[in-house]
Amino acid sequence: MANYAVCCFDHLRVALGLSFVERVVRAVDVAPLPDGPDIVLGVVNVEGRIVPVVNMRKRFRLPERAISVRDHFVIARTCQRSVALVTDAVSGIFEYAEPDIVVAETILPGLEYIDGVAKLSDGLILIHNLDRFLSLEEAASIDSAMATSGAA
Fold first, then answer.
1. Residue range 6-37, pLDDT digits in tens
2. Domain spanning 2-149 has what CATH number?
3. Where are the domains positioned within the chain?
């Protein structure tokens, strides 16, 4: 059994391993990060740490929209850094058993960001792998942009 935080984006539900999630907070204004990769909307201050804000809609090829006061940031840790993931909502913490999960490799080999899919009675939930979330180029671009802007 594994625990996940489930994030919602329009009709899409994405599960993040609870061990990656630090907290969920209401969305706030995002400061721009010049020269950051396209997936990064900017940066926010989280308890004195400057954290890049990642556009999950872009990662999942969903229609773009402006951040609203109803949105949330999931503050999470990847293997390289903390990030703020913009979500429409977080529907809660859930526990999924192995029989409920189909491994991504059996669905389509080579999926970059997805570990698997949870099959539930009310639909599917993509299980997102935050350690493979940013490409090496995106991670390097974030590092460079944050160093240049003095946000590092």
1. 999 988 899 998 989 999 999 999 999 888 88
2. 2.40.50.180
3. 2-149
